[in-house]
Each structure stands twice: as C-alpha cells, then as structure tokens.
Amino acid sequence: MNQRALRKTREQEGRRLDILNAAERLFSENGFFKTSMVEIAEAAEFAIGTVYHFFKSKEDIYISLIEEKMEDFARLIDARLAETASSQDKLGAVIRTKLEYFEQNRNFFRIYVSEWSGFEWTVKSAFGERCWKRYQAQLDLVADIIETGSRQGEFRALDPAEAAFALHGMLNSTIYLWILQPKPSGSLVAKSPSLLTLFLHGVAQPGNSRGTT
Amino acid sequence: MNQRALRKTREQEGRRLDILNAAERLFSENGFFKTSMVEIAEAAEFAIGTVYHFFKSKEDIYISLIEEKMEDFARLIDARLAETASSQDKLGAVIRTKLEYFEQNRNFFRIYVSEWSGFEWTVKSAFGERCWKRYQAQLDLVADIIETGSRQGEFRALDPAEAAFALHGMLNSTIYLWILQPKPSGSLVAKSPSLLTLFLHGVAQPGNSRGTT
DNA sequence: TGAAAAATAGAATACTCATTCATACTATTA
DNA sequence: TAATAGTATGAATGAGTATTCTATTTTTCA
Q1: Of residues A118, A99, A13, the one with CA closest to residue A64
Q2: Which end of chain B offers a freer environment for a tag, N or C, measured as fewer CB atoms within 10 Å?
Q3: How confident is the model at residue A115 (pLDDT cuts 50, 70, 90)?
Q4: What whole-number distance in Å separates Cα of residue A158 and Cα of residue B172?
Q5: CA torsion A173→A175→A181→A183, rounded to 10°?
Q6: Which residues does residue A155 pair with via DSSP β-bridges, in sequence order?
Q7: Helix axis angle, B160-180 relative to A192-201, nearest 10°?
Q8: Is B42 exposed, middle or buried (0-12, 13-18, 19+ CB in 10 A)?
Q9: What positions of strand C are covered by protein, i.e. any atom < 7 Å from a CB?
Q10: Which DSSP category does B155 fall into?
C-alpha cells in the first residue's frame, strides 16, 4: 500500500512540475503579466481548477519557479566551488557554472534577469522576499571570494561587493547577448576563459597600461 | 499674435512634459503594468481624457518617455566623446557620462534596465523598435571604441561586441547597487575611476597574473 | 462491488482598467 | 458681446482575466 502511495505522490509531483515547466516557457516568452492562467493551464494540459489545486495563485507559480531554479543553481555552484582552491579558480568556477547553467536553462534566464531589476514590480510578498535573499546570497558568495582573494594578495584591494556586482552584470550581459542570437552560435560555456581573463586582467594591452588620462 | 501662439505651444509642451514626468515616477515605482492611466492622470493633475489628448495610449507614454530620455543621453555621450582622443579616454568618458546621467535620472534607470531585458514583454510596436535601435546604437558606439583601441594596440584583441556588452552590464550593475542603497552614499560618478580601472586592468593583482588554473 | 475520498473540470463571478465620447468649459477674435 | 475654435472633463463602455466553487470523473479499498 505504501508503494502505491509513493507512486501517487511521485505522479502528483510530476504534474506539479508539468505546470511549472509550462509556466516557465510562457513567462519567459511573454512575461508575468502577459501570461494568463488559462494559457498556463492549457499548456500544461489541465483545467484551470486543477492548476489551482497545485498552486494557490499565479504569483505562487512564478515564485515557486524562481525559487526552485535558484536552489538548483545554488547547489550546482556550491558543488563546483568545493572542488577549487585558489580565489582565481573559484571565480573561474563561478563563471563557468553560471554560463553552463543558463546555457541549459535559456528560458529561465529571461525570468531571472527580469527579476534582477524589477522584483518589486512583479511580485510583492513573503515569497518574493525569500527569492531576493537567495539572490543576495549568491552575490555575497562571490563578494566573499573576492574579499578573500584580496586579503591573500591574489587580487587588488577593491570593494568586494562592487566587484561582485560588476561581475554579475558582466555575466548577465554576456548570457543575454548569447541568447539574443537566433542561432545559438557555439556554446556559451566556451566563453568562460575569455570572461575570466577579462575580469582578472581587463581589456588593456599589458604594457600599455598608461595612467588613466 | 504670433507671440501668443508661441506661448500657447510652449504651455502645451509643458503640460506634455508634466504628464511624462508623472508617468516616469509612477512607472519607475510600480512598473508599466501596475501603473494605471488614472494614476498617471491624477499625478499629472489632469483628467484622463486630457492625457489622451497628449498621448494616444499608455504605451505611447511609455515609449515617448524612453525615447526622449535616451536621446538626451545619447546627445550627452556624443558631446563628451568629442572632447577625448585615446580609446582609453573615450571609455572613461562613456563610463563617467553614464554614471553621471543616471545619478541625475535615478527614476529613469529602473525603466531603462528593465527594458534592457524585457522589451518585448512590455511593448511590441514600431515605436518599441525605435527604442531598441537606439539601445543598440549605444552599444555599437562602445564596441567601435573598443575595436579601434584593439587595432591601435591600446587594448588586447577581443570581441568588441562582447566586451561592450560586458561593460554595459558592469555599469548597469553598479548603478543598480548604488540606487538600491536607501541613503545615496556618496556620489555615483565618483566610482568612475575605479570602474575604468576594473575594466581596463581587471581585479588581479599585477604581478600575480598567473595562468588561469 | 460500491461508497467515500481525491482529483479534475470549466462555467460563473467579480473585479480592474484602457479607451471612448458626449458634454462643459475657456480663450480667441470679429 | 457672441460665435467659433480649441481644450478639458470624467462617466460609461467593453475587454480581459484571476480566482472561486459546484459538479463530474477517477481512484481507493473494505
């Protein structure tokens, strides 16, 4: 009997995911406000009523989506960081992991970046707060890496939070550019080395590092 | 009689701007979808009907807003670039001007970045296309600077478009971080030098530039 | 099998708003 | 001053849609 109960739970979980996946696609294509519950229900092949058995509101779907994906992502980053030693390598791992994750999760990226700038616009709730914390945690992680690197002389002395934000912006832009292109020209992860170099050493030609004016 | 006609036109233009300003504040606080025409009208101290005499739709307000601000911004950048010679200085000017502009136009920033990632979501029209082109032009400008710098040996060889996007992302992140802070702690433009250095030379401690593994 | 529980369905409800338009006001000028 | 043109008004319209709720179908298991 327990077997059956388990299968049932598994099936329910599967349906929940079907809904989340359908929603992810629609949200990423049309945004939160231009996606209707009926559309989500249809895409997931359920009636609206059923969708409401799984999620208490449209916001709930949206937030659950973001939360679960962010958790995935955080886990992946943690795993990768565990395998590295120097701060430079850690940065490399962060860059590579982020590119890799969003290369696999193109749809989610639209949602992710749009929340970066406008969270309060879409959603305002306790759930929303949770997502935002997760976002922050991600950035703090990078700031910590940079701070450690600074202390150990690998990096220059700079504001770790600012540098972390800068890296974050650089990566998001890069991912965005890649996603914009109709034909995913080559892999995104492949850009990791050049991005790491850019962040570590900048664009200036070494040796031409004249004063800044 | 012509004098009067002129004053009239001026007054009309003033009212138009009042509406745009009210809309800018509301859009930046609550986003496009959570701002209603009635709210805009009230904030601008007009009746709804009047607002529709100046703009043919809510989208029209939104797009006009973005277009006019972007034009301002583009003009400012062009002026500043005209005063510089080396590619490094040009980059410095772009950075300084962008920070300066958004330090003056905090409200607009929210709108600006949110459109960066989700233009198709908010608005889909010929007007929207125009704004997007302007966005692109801005990026191309920076890409050109970088390309020129590369050719002349100031910069390393790298993909100019990618580097331009990266810079764009870095700056947006930085501006965002600054705006997030409740107390505008110090000026934003003041961060220009360190950002230029970051983009030119990276975070690595010179001399510690070990290979990337 | 058959009654109770669980899951699904989708029509009806209850809003929110963008936009329109007939009306009222204000300035202009003959 | 009166007729005209130019502006401003805001109630009414209509479309869209999140959510609720009752009815139906399916599953469970004694």
Answers
A1: A13
A2: N
A3: confident
A4: 18
A5: 170
A6: B204
A7: 60
A8: middle
A9: 7-11, 16-22, 28-29
A10: B
Q: Give the CA B7 to C1' C22 distance in Å.
A: 30
Cα A124 off chain centre by: 20
How many Cα atoms sit within 13 Å of A113 on the Cβ side?
A: 30
Which tokens belong to B136?
């692109």
pTM across the whole model = 0.92
Regions in chain B scoring below 70 on pLDDT:
1-2, 118-127, 184, 208-213
Say what the alpha-carbon torsion angle B78, B84, B90, B95 is, to the nearest 10 degrees: -70
Q: How far apart are CA B89 and CA B74, in angstroms?
A: 17
Helix/strand/coil for B187:
coil
Put simply, the answer to whether A169 touches B165 (Cβ < 8 Å) is: no
Place of tokens 């709930």: A60
The answer for residues whose C-beta is within 8 angstroms of residue B102's C-beta and 6 or more apart is B108, B109, B112, B175, B179, B188
CB contact under 8 A, B203 and A163: yes
Write down the pLDDT at residue B213. Answer: 39
